[in-house]
Specification:
206 residues, alpha+beta
């Protein structure tokens, strides 16, 4: 489990992705947007088990998964960022496995799961889980983003209404927001813009 430090009300900083906090947020959420490029770490184990249960029970009403199809001119560099100990070919294999898992979820729960494939350069891993945001960073490093600093932001504790994050994802962030909502809204807008410019794979992933 990640060591955590609460820096202020509504924001928790952790050294490494806090999986326990993430699973707890998933258990409570009825909407989610994932923007994290590759999901192999979610495809097996506790996350997949919980996700399947939440989808079957319809506690989770809507899940959007944004996957990555790397453009040729930055594919090798991004592979070294997301999995620094693997070759670019190995990362491509992981990516295909991830795409298959995401598409299988969409096929199994077509009313609840939307799988979007993007060719836009990913800027940071973002998980919008109900009223919570989990935000990491990509870096040229020997360690992965899962081992870096992560922010967990409770939007309600910072003054937003319940469900407002997802409404922003659907409709766009309002103009003239004050400091904290504007800062939070940038991450929501990243997910919104990327998911609305999808890339169509030329070959099937299944």
């Amino acid at each position: 489990m990640a060591d955590t430090m609460v820096s202020m009300q509504g924001i928790t900083v952790s050294a490494g992705l806090n999986i326990s906090a993430l699973l707890n947020a998933v258990q409570q959420a009825n909407t989610m947007v994932w923007h994290a490029a590759i999901y192999n770490n979610f495809a097996n184990g506790d996350m997949n088990t919980l996700l399947q249960r939440q989808l079957r029970s319809r506690q989770l009403q809507q899940l959007t998964i944004i996957s990555q199809h790397c453009a040729q001119h930055w594919q090798d560099e991004f592979a070294a960022i997301v999995r620094p100990t693997l070759t670019s070919q190995d990362v491509s294999t992981l990516q295909r496995t991830s795409l298959n898992w995401c598409q299988q979820l969409s096929n199994s729960y077509p009313q609840q799961v939307h799988h979007c494939v993007s060719q836009h350069l990913p800027l940071q891993p973002i998980l919008l889980i109900g009223d919570q945001l989990f935000i990491g960073q990509y870096a040229h490093s020997h360690s992965t983003s899962a081992q870096g600093l992560w922010l967990q932001i409770d939007s309600c504790a910072l003054g937003l209404a319940g469900g407002e994050l997802h409404q922003w994802y659907l409709d766009g962030t309002p103009a003239n927001l004050c400091d904290w909502p504007q800062a939070i809204g940038r991450y929501v807008e990243e997910c919104r813009q990327v998911s609305r410019q999808p890339f169509t794979l030329l070959e099937p992933t299944l």
